[in-house]
Amino acid sequence: MSQDSAAVPDAARKLAARRRREIVAVLLFSGGRIFESSIPLSVFGIDRQDAGVPRYRLLVCAGEDAPLRTTGGLELSAPYGLEAISRAGTVVVPAWRSITQAPPPAALDALRRAHEEGARIVGLCTGAFVLAAAGLLDGRPATTHWMYAPTLAKRYPSVHVDPRELFVDDGDVLTSAGTAAGIDLCLHIVRTDHGADAANALARRLVVPPRRTASDLGHQRYLDRSLPEEIGADPLAEVVAWALEHLHEQFDVETLAARAYMSRRTFDRRFRSLTGSAPLQWLITQRVLQAQRLLETSDYSVDEVAGRCGFRSPVALRGHFRRQLGASPAAYRAAYRARRPQNGAPEPALRPERAERAERPERERAALGAGAGFSASALAGHGLAEAAEAAKPASDAYAPRMPETAVGRAGGRPVLPGQRERPVG
Fold first, then answer.
1. Pick from 182, 305, 370, 391: most CB atoms within 10 A?
2. What CA–CA distance (Å, rounded) separates 39 from 179?
3. Distance between CA atoms of 276 and 153, rounded to whole angstroms?
């Protein structure tokens, strides 16, 4: 789903007469991070009409009994309670104190009621966990901080979690990634309500870029290695750590199962229950991540990168790389270097399609075969028979393509650690 897609779903409800879209309720909880909490307060709570920014009316609401203690031991006293949410056409949950705790039932009821009456519901960073607990993200695309995305996907399997997005606008429910992405989403809301000029004026006052996209982050947009916090005390943690340290070697899931002293079936079940992802799916993603780093930081050829990431052949690397990042390794490297010239001297950008032709011999139009360090029989059991499609030429750009369909549907987002099982290849 595109970050700036503002198409309201068919099921979106008409805003209740007593609610006004320009009235913004910010729901605060004890233990919430002060930075995330301050973002909507600054964007929607300060009168900047002199700079051409339309005014919002801000209602700061306590989501539970006061006092509200925030980071650094500060105590906050909100001027309103949950009852004030009944007047708001926009409700923002800027953060939640712990992804392991359940939000207060009264706050969840207030959010559900606001949504039923047509209010726009916004979750910044870990605020997505509150929206998910209220059932407002069921069947929807959403994002959160990359570190917590696997846990969100595991705990709420009906949510289509995409940690690659800075924010996701699904019409009447919006979510953002970590910290600074909350500013991006709030600016997007102003842009949606009042146009680009108002959003740009506000961005100037805040001294931030008026509009960022995930592709603007360039080298920062890694598939992350992280796993849910619970894995730290699990016996599988040692096996996972070993796998990450030996990605340059060719090993398969059977090897990991043996190191865990488990049968393959037991290992698959334990790994999936712990991370929300199949071990094969996770391992291929980590190999692609390692390839992404080497393409950015080294001069190894694509063939050498494939070998150093545990792929049995460059064909396997190119196929999995394209399927996860939407570009061939050569096109990715060329576009990355075009944006980050070496030694201060601009380098001529190689057009992605030319780079791909230069790096894709005719023989690589065959199937991916043995793939990312796994036997053909192992791959066949994980829905990889159609992996040859990944080696076909396609339009390239550096930035992994933002799916045009809703996340999780056919043709949607790439598979990431911690998300629901989908065929890999």
1. 182
2. 9
3. 7
